[in-house]
Amino acid sequence: MTAPSQGSGRRSIGTVGHATRDYRHGLLRELMDREKLDALAFMSDRLIKFASNWSLDVAWFERPTLFVFPRNGAPFGILHELSTNSWRFTAESGGVWVSNVSFYSEHPRLHHRLPLSLQWNAMVASHLEQAGLQHARIGVDAEELARVGGVTLGLPYVRELLPRLRLENVAAQCADLTVVKHDEEISLIQETASLANWGQQRWHEQVRPGLLTAEVDMKVAASIVEEATRRYPPGVELAVFCQTISSPKTWFGTAPSDRVEKGDALVTSVSVQLNAQGVTNERTRFYGKPSQRQAGLFEAVRAASEAACAAAVAGKPTAQVSAAVRTRFEKAGLTQFALDDLPTGNVPLRAKQLITVRPGVYEWGTGGCRHGNVVVVGDRPEVLTTTPMDLASQTLT
Amino acid sequence: MASALATERWRLFAQDLPAAPAQGPRGNTSVAPNDRVWALGKQTLIHRTRLMRELMDREKFDALAFSSGLYLKFAANFSGFAGGEAACVVPRNGNPFLILPASSANGWRFQAAAQRPWTTDVTFSDENDAAFNDALTAKLEQTGLRHARIGVETSAFSSALAALPEVQVERAARQIDVLRMVKSKEEIAVMREAASLADWVQGCYRENIRPGRLVGELDAAMAALGYQEATRRFPDADVTIPCWTLSGPVSASPHGAGTTFGNLSGARIEPGHVLINNVYPSLDGVPIENERTWICGKPTRRQTELFAAVLAAQEAGCEAVVAGRPIAAIDSAALSVFERLGFADMVYHRTGHGLGLAGHDEPIDMAFNTAPIPEGMVTSVEPSLLEYGLGGFRIDDTVVAAETAQILTRSPKDLKSQVIE
């Protein structure tokens, strides 16, 4: 096995490379040109990862982090001191796409002084001035404000120091940048999904009557970590989360003290992230023969899930996905128990867009039933979460 | 008006809500057969109601209004919020009420059946802005708050209240956040139980850390043991036990190199590694922290030196958690040790932060906060030294401020206990 060679810029297993960087930075430039912006400023973990390939490791509400991408000029970052070594690890492995970062401190230093958290607004103003952006029109991805020691930190307060700075909230346009994935990202997501699918299968094998659901979840999480070690070279960013909720509380509670019993409906989420690219695979399964009502809910959810996945066709309206679900639930007479988390709007779906489809029904007394899938939109939708959804496969005896 | 207030859909969800008790505040303190307190109840209700009323009197508010899951728990003890638009309004004079989105209806029913929430007055609204706004407007009118001055936690209500132009909404996030700083005795008792569980899990780590083991596999295995023990101690409790270890050079970054609560593929414990593990159980949504540094094999001179410095700084920090002293004194107590020993350049964060419903809770700023420590404040004390190439050294206890500091996490932290031979 060899280490990921991100430094060369070629994509390695479990990462994205310079082709993705160039694609994304091209999207940033197009956005700036379209909106007549001199720079983009990102504070959300999602956009910071998107544009710099660095995984933010502190929380915005107490430790704000800012990356600025000028239309003409080198990008730079303002990072919290706690991120110092995390940044250094990633930078030394060649994994980040920004080279100029500065740090601020949240504790007093006698030596090697840095600006303090409480000086964050002034520090950002000064860096914008150094980059010639003090009169710029900057698009921002969020208007989150940190509050530290009674001082509010954020770009609106930087503007008090740079009165000719203009800020435009372009959060929606920024979110749109991340919709259509580069081929490298699609490959990474396929790998991630494959690992999540593998994990669902292990749940199937690990479950025994009398075990705590949380215990089974942790066994599965452990085996996914082991499998990732077999599949990937060292050094790929990996995070695994498994959670099962058993009936009747499905969806609505956390009850790790629940034990697996005959007659249970179990909804299991297996989430895997590789290089912060996450896939959640959710399946409902029964331990023992389901009641007629349970089986009825299950079949309706399966039909709705399949219809929604099949509707993820490029060029069709996004709302078609939720309409497909609604039609199936209406037909089954389950509308009043349905909750979904489905894309809406009439914007056409785009090829290489990734959508999450997780329709569910939740009946008080019976419990909930949900399948969660991840689908790549195309002329033919590609369902990445390939764990079977049929009743026979998901009934354990 | 309020078309969504009683749609057929939510009548179906809400039809079997348990009846309200005849009178008096709700709040069912959960005591397991072994006298363990694992959930918040009446005492916390009284404590928080007093805090909220004092704030309303001070600021001349007629009500406080909250919208985040954190404050639905704080003000109404409801923890089944599934996201979306919600409101919890606590009038100065009158009963609190909630507007919840449809997706939280069954969550509410489970909690209401267990008599957990502190109010029975809940309205379910369809999940769109207009339905939520209608429901909130109608409820404020019904409760005589149409001319009220309302202190809010976020700006979420500004458009929702457009239909009631005489309502004065005032942003009071700063004052509201401070309410979380002092815990009720019951809350501290729950945190003590969570701390005891964390100590137990740390004992499992002591038995299980060994060279060659995958770090992520170890953490999952320890969490599984934790859940088994939690079930023995607290039947039916709302418990989570996140466990996260960083082993070797990567531990020089407190939150890892990559996804938080993740690890790099192939990360294994190796002989000579220094490890930091984080055990963060929460009971009824109230988390505590217990972090320990471990050495796999005979410590080197450098490891011994850094370990000893962190232990001394951490003990000095703990001792400074004394009611009436400045909050910043906790940070300066630990930093002074590092300065004296010549290690201050290896410090990359404050000594600690408040603990409570938000995880990282008030006080957020420890290093420059000269306000006096209030009795009942709960904080982490977790100074660290981070050496790139070698790893991190950090010890974290959950500490309650009183006349003398009360340390809730009691697992060993001396070098001898933390060396895995």
Task: Give the arrangement of secondary structure elements.
The complex is a heterodimer of chains A (397) and B (421).
Chain A: H1 18-35, E1 39-42, H2 45-52, E2 66-70, E3 76-80, H3 84-92, E4 100-104, H4 120-130, E5 137-140, E6 146-148, E7 151-153, H5 155-161, E8 166-169, H6 171-177, H7 183-206, H8 213-231, E9 237-246, E10 265-274, E11 277-287, H9 292-310, H10 319-331, E12 338-339, E13 354-357, E14 360-363, E15 367-370, E16 373-376, E17 382-383, E18 395-396
Parallel strand pairs in A: 1-5, 3-4, 5-8, 11-18
Antiparallel strand pairs in A: 1-2, 2-3, 6-7, 9-10, 10-11, 12-14, 13-16, 14-15, 16-17
Chain B: H1 8-14, H2 42-59, E1 63-66, H3 69-76, E2 87-91, E3 97-101, H4 105-113, E4 122-125, H5 129-142, E5 149-152, E6 168-171, H6 173-178, H7 185-208, H8 215-233, E7 239-240, E8 243-247, E9 263-264, E10 274-279, E11 282-283, E12 286-287, E13 290-296, H9 301-319, H10 328-341, E14 354-356, E15 359-361, E16 378-381, E17 384-387, E18 391-394, E19 397-400, E20 406-407, H11 415-418, E21 419-420
Parallel strand pairs in B: 1-5, 3-4, 5-6, 13-21
Antiparallel strand pairs in B: 1-2, 2-3, 7-11, 8-10, 10-13, 11-12, 14-15, 16-19, 17-18, 19-20
The CATH topology label of the largest domain in chain A is Creatine Amidinohydrolase
Q: What overall geometry of chain B do the principal axes of the alpha carbons give?
A: elongated
Contiguous low-pLDDT stretches of chain B (5 residues minimum) are 1-28
How far apart, in Å, are the first and last alpha carbons of chain A? Answer: 40 Å
Radius of gyration of chain A in whole Å, from Cα?
24 Å
CATH superfamily of the largest domain in chain B: Creatinase/methionine aminopeptidase superfamily
Shape of chain A: globular
The spatial strand order of the largest sheet of chain B comes to 4-3-2-1-5-6
What is the CATH topology assignment of the largest domain in chain B? Creatine Amidinohydrolase
Please tell me the CATH architecture of the largest domain in chain B by its name. Answer: Alpha-Beta Complex
- Percent range of helical residues of chain B: 25-40%
Provide the CATH top-level class of the largest domain in chain B. Answer: Alpha Beta
Q: What's the mean pLDDT score of chain A? A: 92
Q: How confident overall, as mean pLDDT of chain B?
A: 90
